[in-house]
């Protein structure tokens, strides 16, 4: 890793490094659920990925996306709509959210459901793989809304445990979904954060679809814009209830997409809150990213940043210093015995 004095660093690079990760990598706007959960694997690795412009798509990631698309197509058709403004982009997200809630009531299941909300003032957006109404493992009078995430495996069996990054991903999904159900979000704050004009009408293609879907159903003076579509979102979530405290991770075999089974775990609000408190400090620039502890050093074996990782190099240096110190103490004790 090249070491330079501050005076040798160009001013534009200095300015970037002085910004918080939220400002630097996300332009102070929307964060994804994955932006939070991925830090549970190794904060420094993710930080280096952000600096590099993101992860490169691997073959495994490509296959995983294909399997997700096939699963979604089993539930509904997908059409492409041209977008001309950022309001169009978010209009499609809200429309898909409304469609997903409707599908949940009609088919008792929905896939690829967009959700959003705030975490300590930071706007967060995510897409839940699946929510399904089904019985859970206790005696209850009705089916529960079970949130699940689909993961693909190269090996034809499920893992022994659910990784922390996956747990935090699903728990944050549940937190955001339940807050939408409770209706506690401030839509104007969302529009302001994302720099959106809620009264700007959608472009022709999207406006036609929105009008067909909601003009007759909602109100005669319905205008196809974000403000009115958000009202439909609020009404849609008013019909559902909070999700189940049992979360599911479903595994598919990469080779043929066959089902390998699922693992389940309980939602832990305190654990999630503590994790979010820590990761928010990173995103707001209140602390630097951390590497993995020594017991998790095996993660470095396949990390493309391992050779130049400051955290790893410092840990190796500390370990060598501790070895030398121990050796000096041992030699000194040996001399004491001999004298």
UniProtKB/TrEMBL annotation:
<dbReference type="Pfam" id="PF09810">
    <property type="entry name" value="Exo5"/>
</dbReference>
<dbReference type="GO" id="GO:0036297">
    <property type="term" value="P:interstrand cross-link repair"/>
</dbReference>
<dbReference type="GO" id="GO:0045145">
    <property type="term" value="F:single-stranded DNA 5'-3' DNA exonuclease activity"/>
</dbReference>
<feature type="region of interest" description="Disordered">
    <location>
        <begin position="1"/>
        <end position="26"/>
    </location>
</feature>
<dbReference type="GO" id="GO:0005739">
    <property type="term" value="C:mitochondrion"/>
</dbReference>
<dbReference type="InterPro" id="IPR011604">
    <property type="entry name" value="PDDEXK-like_dom_sf"/>
</dbReference>
<feature type="compositionally biased region" description="Basic and acidic residues">
    <location>
        <begin position="14"/>
        <end position="26"/>
    </location>
</feature>
<dbReference type="InterPro" id="IPR019190">
    <property type="entry name" value="EXOV"/>
</dbReference>
<dbReference type="GO" id="GO:0005634">
    <property type="term" value="C:nucleus"/>
</dbReference>
<protein>
    <recommendedName>
        <fullName>Exonuclease V</fullName>
    </recommendedName>
</protein>
<comment type="similarity">
    <text>Belongs to the EXO5 family.</text>
</comment>
């Amino acid at each position: 890793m090249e070491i330079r004095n501050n005076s040798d660093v160009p001013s534009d690079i200095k300015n970037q490094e002085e910004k918080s990760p939220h400002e630097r990598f996300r332009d102070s706007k929307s964060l994804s659920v994955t932006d939070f959960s991925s830090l549970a694997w190794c904060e420094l690795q993710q930080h280096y990925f952000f600096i590099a412009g993101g992860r490169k798509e691997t073959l495994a990631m490509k296959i995983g996306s294909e399997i997700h698309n096939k699963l979604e197509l089993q539930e509904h058709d997908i059409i492409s709509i041209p977008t001309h403004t950022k309001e169009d982009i978010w209009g499609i997200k809200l429309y898909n959210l409304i469609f997903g809630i409707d599908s949940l009531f009609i088919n008792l299941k929905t896939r690829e459901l967009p959700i959003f909300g705030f975490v300590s003032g930071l706007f967060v957006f995510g897409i839940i793989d699946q929510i399904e109404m089904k019985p859970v493992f206790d005696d209850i009078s009705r089916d529960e809304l079970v949130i699940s995430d689909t993961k693909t495996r190269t090996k034809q069996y499920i893992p022994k445990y659910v990784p922390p990054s996956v747990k935090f991903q699903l728990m944050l999904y549940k937190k955001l979904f339940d807050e939408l159900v409770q209706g506690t979000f401030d839509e104007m704050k969302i529009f302001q954060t994302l720099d959106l004009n809620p009264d700007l009408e959608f472009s022709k293609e999207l406006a036609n679809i929105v009008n067909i879907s909601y003009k007759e159903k909602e109100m005669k003076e319905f205008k196809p814009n974000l403000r009115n579509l958000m009202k439909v979102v609020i009404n849609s979530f008013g019909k559902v209830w909070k999700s189940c405290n049992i979360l599911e991770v479903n595994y598919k075999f990469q080779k043929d997409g066959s089902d390998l089974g699922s693992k389940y775990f309980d939602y832990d609000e305190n654990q999630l809150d503590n994790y979010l408190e820590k990761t928010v400090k990173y995103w707001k620039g209140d602390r630097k990213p951390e590497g993995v502890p020594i017991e998790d050093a095996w993660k470095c074996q396949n990390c493309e940043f391992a050779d130049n990782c400051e955290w790893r190099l410092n840990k190796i240096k500390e370990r060598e210093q501790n070895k030398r110190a121990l050796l000096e103490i041992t030699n000194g004790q040996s001399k004491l015995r001999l004298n």
